[in-house]
């Protein structure tokens, strides 16, 4: 399995793109502005999108994807997410007001878009890759994802603050090779991080301390302009982990 980072920033500007991860050439995890980095021919190949939550920086590329290539595909793009996330998309995005409902275009019998609700403890296997939701603690219903392959596992936290449930789930993955976890704010902005349910370096360090597995750790969702300061604080708070910032264009293989 190959995971390509199309976007991993907590914002935009100077080439930054928001969260979108490409698994091989047919699956997306989140659909932020990083989706716009794909060539047209690559867009046509996207069959499945796994969403962590419905915030705009994680879904804004999805309507444009469908509008651009929906008529060229032989099957609908399937969006997988928690039921509460799909409800938000139905009411506030694909509602004929902000954007057309592609579950009805060109008709309900042959649409360009299909929703498939994921149970919090469910799993879906696609060509030998198993996608499982992971617990997350955010201001809206959210999850992360565990992607399992025969060569090992990768976990992505999505947007989250402290979560005992997430740590327990990660500790239950003995072959966890890569952990992509968010840290959005510097320590001095701890109060904002708590309010928005995001990590700051000291809270991330506490999560890592609770891990009984030893994956490579990649930090994502850094706020624009603060990346270097946040990473310096992460390395100070969590010495010995060798944490690195996830980079746009990076490829992780399993």
From TrEMBL:
Keywords from the UniProt entry: Hydrolase
Q: Name one GO molecular function term.
A: 3',5'-cyclic-nucleotide phosphodiesterase activity
According to its UniProt record, the EC number is 3.1.4.17
Keyword hit for Hydrolase: yes
* Superkingdom, taxonomy of origin: Bacteria
User: Which Pfam families does the record match to this protein?
Assistant: Lactamase_B_2 (PF12706)
**Domain called Metallo-beta-lactamase: residue spans:** 17-199
Query: Among its keywords, does the record have Nucleotidyltransferase?
Result: no
Q: What is this protein called?
A: 3',5'-cyclic-nucleotide phosphodiesterase
